[in-house]
Design brief:
Low-confidence stretches: 300-306
CATH topology of the largest domain: Rossmann fold
Order of helices and strands: EEEHEEHEHHHEHEHEEHEEEHEH
Helix content: 25-40%
Number of helices: 10
Shape: globular
Strand content: 25-35%
CATH architecture of the largest domain: 3-Layer(aba) Sandwich
Mean pLDDT: 90
Strand order of the largest sheet: 6-7-8-3-9-10
Length: about 300
């Protein structure tokens, strides 16, 4: 049974319909990705979940109860627009945010120091926030969302601007929290993070939920007759081939959809006969990026972040 539910929420700003009748649910002990390009409606949806914006219609419930101050006290929220007090010191900042959420004492101080050590910031605990790099400030703000032991984590564009090492540290912490039964929802437009981490996803575009459900079932539904191919060579001969329905090209990696199941083996033979070096040929497989592009299109239209 879903623990966190978004039910038919909508929000307009003047003539702009930022979110249009969006619904999805997040089970306990799972990682949920709210996916969309910039301006798709991700941040507005999250702000309605946090009562920063009131929805024009619809509601958000947690364990069957409409969200409100009690729900917010159980959430660790990382907003897209980071907000730290620049003149405060790092450890002082963490303990301040923990106390706002009702947590203080030696245990919280120890936990804060442990997290700082994990992120290689132990030697900066007495530095002012303004003296940290943007990436280190982001790490501090992420730690501040964890110290009150929230039941739900809502993270808006968590991985934006982080290097691979710190991204991996955050990923491991999130997986640990999932194992503890927490609900983790993060928004992103980076499909590689979502594909590796998420149990469930919703793809939002122009304020509407286009795809929603478990990632495994979504991929299974859309992977029939699709081949994920890594290769070296020239595959331009496939462009007008009658067995090909669609090609999504990413350079040396492509997704190829054939028209019938029997064409899968024919495709492999074509590649070999044309001296293409096949490094990976996964039949009935599809990437989340291919699903995303199919759902929202490829036009470069973008509105302000909402």
């Amino acid at each position: 049974m879903a623990t966190l539910e978004v039910k038919n929420i909508s929000k307009s700003f003047g003539k702009l319909k930022a979110v249009d009748n969006a619904s999805f649910s997040v089970p306990k002990g799972s990682i949920f990705g709210l996916l969309g390009r910039n301006g798709a409606g991700k941040t507005t949806t999250i702000r309605m979940m946090m009562d920063i914006y009131l929805p024009d219609s619809g509601e958000v419930t947690y364990q069957g109860i409409k969200s409100g101050p009690d729900f917010n006290s159980k959430v660790g929220y990382l907003p897209e627009e980071r907000g730290l007090y620049k003149k405060m010191k790092v450890l002082e900042t963490l303990l301040f945010f923990a106390e706002i959420k009702g947590k203080k004492g030696r245990a919280v101080t120890k936990l804060a120091k442990d997290y700082l050590a994990k992120f290689d910031l132990a030697d900066r605990m007495n530095s002012k926030i303004e003296d940290l790099s943007k990436g280190n400030q982001q790490k501090v703000q992420f730690i501040s969302t964890l110290l009150h032991d929230p039941e739900v984590l809502i993270l808006d564009e968590l991985f934006s601007g982080l290097d691979p090492i710190n991204t991996n540290i955050m990923k491991n912490i999130i997986l640990e929290l999932k194992e503890q039964g927490k609900i983790i929802l993060f928004s992103t437009h980076v499909m590689s993070f979502a594909e590796k981490m998420c149990d469930h996803i919703a793809i939002i575009d122009h304020g509407k939920i286009k795809i929603n459900g478990s990632l495994a079932s979504i991929k299974a539904e859309r992977s029939q007759r699709n081949i994920s191919l890594n290769y070296e060579g020239d595959i331009s001969f496939l462009r007008n081939n009658p067995i090909i329905e669609n090609i999504s090209d990413y350079g040396n990696s492509v997704g190829i959809k054939v028209k019938e199941d029997k064409h899968i083996q024919q495709l492999l033979k074509l590649l070999v006969d044309n001296n293409v070096e096949v490094k990976k040929f996964d039949a009935n497989d599809i990437s989340l990026e291919e699903i995303f592009i199919d759902a929202v299109g490829t036009e470069a239209e973008e509105v302000k972040n909402v």
